[in-house]
Design the sequence.
């Protein structure tokens, strides 16, 4: 029975349609794997009753013969998504006990298509972090281990629970969100595929907001085909999100021919960082060679403003976060501090926010408030916005010059140990290859491409033209085929 959890979305879809297996069976297998995997800390809230009901309903639809692709597929849902009547806390103490009265657009589209919710997944608090260590629930743990050590490694963040759950076969796939790398970095750390779509492709409605001009939800899956299938169900125009694009949704799976002959792949010289581990450098060179062997034209390109991306991101993201998080005031949602005699409304706000937000979230709110304050707005926030425009222009120029996709490493290292990266600046450096994509609003995908000397997965990132996820997925599909990454973590949990 446990083998059913190893199915891909495509494999499960085809097997269910043939009548070889039911959603009820796959769902039951996932629920039992989840019950067995408490040590991974991936799920923070299980919904077995909902899952069982949804699976039964999906089996009826599949029998009737015209079920959508995602029908009957058991998923984990990142805790950042509002799920109706089910705890949705963004892994924060301030949303303690919060059960939304509505469903996010993404989850409602998935459930309308028949997908099954196994539960809510761990993450960094309000999606701020790269290691899942800022979660109020405690961190999720990477199912992979370094050599024979039993050091607990991070699954990355912020979608760390999603990454751990998919890599450990607790669910067939998961939702993630990516503001500066939170889908692609954890995917790389656990050897799965993670896609951040073009900004505006997927509705943000009902997803707890972090930095609204950067946030985008996407699929975290076992392979590229599954990312194509799941993305199609997640996207589409939503009038409830003013930045949701009214643009046709192609059949991304149909685009997966694996033929990339004559496509131009750009290799940006600015991503060759000082002190980059030799293994990452080699992985990148190997990936380049694989795409070349598959018939692509390799072109050296320059994205000159890359070095300003991290500082610009760490001004813009906290600025937007400080504004978005102002709504958590102890009045409307979740936690409210116990007040002392004589406390007024100001004390209520202060105590609630001091108790409810963890240290990283407080740091971001303070940085964000500072860069938006009257005296510093031009020096920091406006300057960061101008830098952002230049970063976007770098990409526009490269794409106008005929580049179809850009290849870079996904992360500057393999997964690190929990507690190893406690300095915030050190932690922010993890996002060096991913934040540019969010600042420019582009689609990016991380594909597992190899193992390091210690046996840990490493990912490569492909960046595509806006709205051309189909093309991007096809290049990723070719890379996946050539890299032939099939390794799985040895079960210790
Ligand atoms: N690690 C980045 C941050 O902490 C990105 C987080 C994300 O993409 N949600 O802001």
Sequence:
């Amino acid at each position: 029975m446990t083998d059913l959890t190893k199915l891909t979305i495509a494999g499960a879809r085809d097997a269910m349609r043939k009548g070889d297996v039911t959603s009820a069976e796959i769902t039951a297998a996932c629920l039992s794997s989840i019950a067995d995997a408490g040590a991974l800390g991936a799920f923070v809230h299980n919904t077995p009753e909902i899952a069982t009901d949804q699976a039964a309903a999906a089996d009826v639809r599949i029998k009737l013969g015209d079920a959508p692709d995602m029908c009957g597929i058991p998923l984990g849902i990142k805790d950042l998504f509002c799920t109706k009547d089910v705890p949705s806390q963004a892994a924060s103490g301030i949303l303690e006990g919060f059960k939304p009265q509505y469903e996010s657009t993404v989850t409602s589209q998935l459930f309308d298509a028949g997908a099954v919710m196994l539960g809510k997944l761990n993450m960094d608090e309000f999606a701020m972090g790269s290691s899942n260590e800022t979660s109020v629930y405690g961190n999720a743990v990477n199912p992979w281990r370094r050599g024979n050590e039993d050091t607990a490694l991070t699954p990355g963040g912020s979608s760390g629970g999603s990454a751990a759950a998919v890599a450990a076969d607790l669910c067939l796939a998961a939702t993630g969100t990516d503001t500066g790398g939170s889908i692609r970095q954890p995917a790389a750390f656990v050897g799965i595929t993670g896609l951040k779509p073009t900004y505006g492709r997927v509705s943000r409605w009902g997803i707890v907001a972090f930095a609204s001009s950067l946030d985008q939800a996407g699929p975290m899956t076992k392979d590229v085909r599954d990312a194509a299938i799941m993305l199609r169900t997640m996207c589409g125009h939503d009038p409830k999100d003013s930045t949701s694009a009214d643009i046709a949704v192609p059949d991304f799976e149909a685009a997966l021919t694996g033929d990339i002959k004559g496509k131009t792949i750009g290799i940006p010289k600015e991503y060759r960082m000082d002190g980059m581990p030799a293994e990452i450098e080699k992985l990148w060179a190997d990936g380049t060679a694989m795409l070349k062997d598959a018939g692509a034209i390799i072109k050296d390109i320059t994205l000159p403003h890359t070095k300003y991306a991290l500082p610009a991101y760490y001004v813009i993201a906290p600025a937007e976060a400080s504004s978005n998080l102002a709504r958590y005031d102890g009045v409307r949602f979740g936690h409210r501090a116990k007040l002392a005699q004589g406390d007024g409304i100001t004390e209520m706000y202060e105590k609630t926010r001091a108790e409810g937000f963890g240290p990283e979230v407080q740091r971001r709110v303070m940085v964000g408030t500072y860069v938006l304050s009257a005296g510093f707005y031009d020096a920091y926030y406006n300057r960061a916005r101008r830098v952002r425009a230049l970063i976007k222009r770098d990409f526009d120029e490269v794409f106008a010059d005929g580049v179809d996709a850009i290849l870079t490493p996904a992360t500057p290292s393999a997964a690190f140990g929990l507690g190893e990266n406690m300095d915030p600046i050190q932690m922010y450096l993890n996002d060096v290859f991913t934040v540019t994509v969010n600042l420019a609003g582009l689609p990016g995908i991380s594909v597992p491409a190899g193992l390091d000397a210690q046996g840990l997965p490493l990912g490569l990132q492909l960046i595509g033209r806006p709205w051309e996820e189909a093309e991007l997925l096809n290049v990723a599909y070719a890379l996946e085929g050539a890299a032939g990454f099939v390794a799985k973590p040895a079960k210790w949990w």
Q: What stands out?
A: The chain has a mean pLDDT of 97. The domain at 1-493 is CATH 3.90.1300.10 (Amidase signature (AS) enzymes). DSSP finds 15 helices and eleven strands in the chain. The first strand starts at residue 43 and ends at 46.
